[in-house]
């Protein structure tokens, strides 16, 4: 399988969709960015995860004593009876030791809610055979409330949770942490519908794609931390294909051994709003990659302090035929070892009311690197104080089109060694 790399034309390319699928199956008057973020932080608070406001919505259910066998029996009975709400014990770790068809708990096939309490954990025993914690099949609808899910390890996909086609997962006030997949989706592998709210997905690992979350279905992440996940190949934080919506969250400190530390939008339509994508690392594409024929909208997003350690694209990378809109955002202080400290564009890119500042490239294009028929249209956007070692400190354009729309307030100034290189009408050297 061909990995994320630069082809002969210089465009960022990714593996074929079918190959990955096989692996998965085996405005001027608008408030400033800082003002919007301050208001947002006041509204949502600084912390997510357990105890962040979802409590009180949990339906009361059948108590399950602090015993793994009792939990297994309760889920099996719930499946047989068409669903149930189960109240797990507080200050309890349900330690799973038995492999039940690839998981530690019975496969979810009906609507089931697991209500955690104070310090409730479901964990695979370290000495047990390899298995994930939960599998959700078609017809299964699992809700997790205030639970920690940890220790899962599988040779397949979904280190903690696998959502198969037709299945549904909702995680509220929960932590998906320290799980491992030798395939894809170190924390969660989703082929159905997954909603993650007020939660954390952290310290998970996948050998191939999606260290934290991999999704080929519908994925909605809200007020959640995706942090410190790793992958051996591409997409350490979130690898999304299909319908991806991320709101009021953080994607932080994830690391890919090869490509894209933060977010991969592989195919489909994605929207990221009021979210910080920061301090992610990869050999190539530190923060975000948007693949061929894919749409992504970033609104009030900070892409900051991400690093491509040996190659291109510190912040945002777009492939040919992709469509990306960035609004009211900051792309700042990202670094690429070679080209494109802030943005690498070969698709259709529209930037409105955004700051591209303080990015650095070891080669060309400190702020923006536009090439190979890429079209970049900037409106009321500031490209300031970016640095390229070779050329195009602010904007480097070769064989593409850049429209600054300076009448709207776009400025390209104080970049080093120059503001622009190539054909950038309206830019003062």
Written account of the structure:
The structure is a single chain. The protein is mainly beta and 429 residues long. It folds into two domains: 235 residues; 145 residues. The chain contains three helices and 49 strands. The longest helix is centred in the N-terminal third of the chain and has 14 residues.
How would you briefly describe this protein structure?
With 429 residues, this protein is mainly beta. The protein has two domains: 42-276; 285-429.
The counted number of beta strands is 49
Q: Percentage of helical residues?
A: under 10%
Sheet with most strands: 24 strands, parallel
Strand content: 35-45%
Domains (count):
2
Shape: elongated
Mean pLDDT: 90
Note the gap between the termini: 42 Å
Give the tags:
single chain, 42% strand, elongated, 24-stranded parallel sheet, 8% helix, 429 residues
Helices, strands, pairings?
Layout: E1 5-6, E2 12-13, H1 17-25, H2 33-44, E3 62-64, H3 68-81, E4 84-88, E5 92-96, E6 111-115, E7 120-124, E8 134-136, E9 141-145, E10 148-150, E11 153-154, E12 161-163, E13 168-172, E14 175-177, E15 180-181, E16 188-190, E17 193-197, E18 200-202, E19 205-206, E20 213-215, E21 218-222, E22 225-227, E23 230-231, E24 238-247, E25 250-252, E26 255-259, E27 263-273, E28 276-278, E29 281-284, E30 288-290, E31 294-299, E32 302-304, E33 307-308, E34 316-318, E35 323-327, E36 330-332, E37 335-336, E38 343-345, E39 348-352, E40 355-357, E41 360-361, E42 368-371, E43 375-379, E44 382-384, E45 387-388, E46 395-398, E47 401-403, E48 411-413, E49 420-421
């Amino acid at each position: 399988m061909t990995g994320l790399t630069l082809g002969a034309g210089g465009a960022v390319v990714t593996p074929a969709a079918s190959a990955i699928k096989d692996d998965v199956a085996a405005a001027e008057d608008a408030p400033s960015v800082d003002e919007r973020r301050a208001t947002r932080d006041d509204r949502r608070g600084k912390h997510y995860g357990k105890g962040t406001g979802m409590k009180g919505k949990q339906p009361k259910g059948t108590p399950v004593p602090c015993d793994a066998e009792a939990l297994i029996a309760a889920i099996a009975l719930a499946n047989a009876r068409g669903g149930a709400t189960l109240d797990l014990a507080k200050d309890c770790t349900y330690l799973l030791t038995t492999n039940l068809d690839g998981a530690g708990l019975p496969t979810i096939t009906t609507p089931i809610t697991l209500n955690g309490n104070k310090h409730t954990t479901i964990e695979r025993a370290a000495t047990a055979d390899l298995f994930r914690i939960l599998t959700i099949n078609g017809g299964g609808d699992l809700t997790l409330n205030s639970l920690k899910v940890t220790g899962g390890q599988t040779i397949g996909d979904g280190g903690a949770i696998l959502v198969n086609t037709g299945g549904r997962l909702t995680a509220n006030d929960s932590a998906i942490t320290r799980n491992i997949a030798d395939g894809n989706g170190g924390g969660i592998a989703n082929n159905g519908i997954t909603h993650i709210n007020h939660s954390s997905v952290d310290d998970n690992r996948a050998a191939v794609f999606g260290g934290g979350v991999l999704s080929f279905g519908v994925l909605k992440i809200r007020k959640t931390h995706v942090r410190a996940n790793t992958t051996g190949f591409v997409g350490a934080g979130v690898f999304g294909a299909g319908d991806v919506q991320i709101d009021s969250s953080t994607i932080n400190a994830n690391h890919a051994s090869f490509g894209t530390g933060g977010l991969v939008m592989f195919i489909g339509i994605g929207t990221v709003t009021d979210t910080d994508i920061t301090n992610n690392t990869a050999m190539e594409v530190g923060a975000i990659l948007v693949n061929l024929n894919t749409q992504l909208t970033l609104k009030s997003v900070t892409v900051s302090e991400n690093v491509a350690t040996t190659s291109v694209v510190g912040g945002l990378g777009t492939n040919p035929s992709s469509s990306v809109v960035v609004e009211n955002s900051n792309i700042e202080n990202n670094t690429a070892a070679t080209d494109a400290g802030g943005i690498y564009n070969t698709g259709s890119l529209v930037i409105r009311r955004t700051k591209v500042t303080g990015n650095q490239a070891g080669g060309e294009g400190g702020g923006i690197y536009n090439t190979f028929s890429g079209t970049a249209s900037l409106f009321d956007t500031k490209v300031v104080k970016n640095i390229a070692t070779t050329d195009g400190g602010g904007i480097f354009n070769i064989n593409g089109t850049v429209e600054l729309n300076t009448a709207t307030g776009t400025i390209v100034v104080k970049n080093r060694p120059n503001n622009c290189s190539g054909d950038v009408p309206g830019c003062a050297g």
